[in-house]
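Question: what's this shape?

___
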Amino acid sequence: MTNTPANIFNTAFQAGLNWDDYLASSGDHADAWREARGRVCLSDSQKALLQDFDRSMQILVVSGAWCGDCVRQGPILAAFADACPLMHLKFIDRDDSSSPISMISINDGNRVPVVIFMAEDGALVSTYGDRTLSYYRWMAAKTLGPACPVPGAPIPEDVLASVTQDWLNECERVQLLLRLSPRLREIHSD
């Protein structure tokens, strides 16, 4: 087997852990993840959208149990996977020997979380990370302040809800990409 990105991502997905096993391996950090998962509330329309997905997708979260951004965002993806049986979600620690972190640097760094979306057969579809647009807008408004206004950077009333919607938008984009893929449409005869 050659060391192509698809093979590396598939190997990492196979080495990844489901939500419960990842938390079990997270030591003292697991409580923060569980608490964050308890705060994620999906609306009826968000649940309906997820339940309407009809293409299986493999989702690998390259993470760190210690990482605040991961603690905020990983539970959102877990909530999506709970609502959609076609979303196969796994987590892998950034420092795990099977982690593809060296292939997915962001701004020349090993930032986490990075989410790798793959088709049912392991083909790479998309990567997304490390923070969503809503969260960057909130950070920019908070950090840069009024002396340095950033266009479109209002602080959301509920940052968690905004970040959840950002992630749902990306999952929907990937689902539509899968649904409209000529290769997969031929496989599924639709």
The first helix runs from residue 5 to 15.
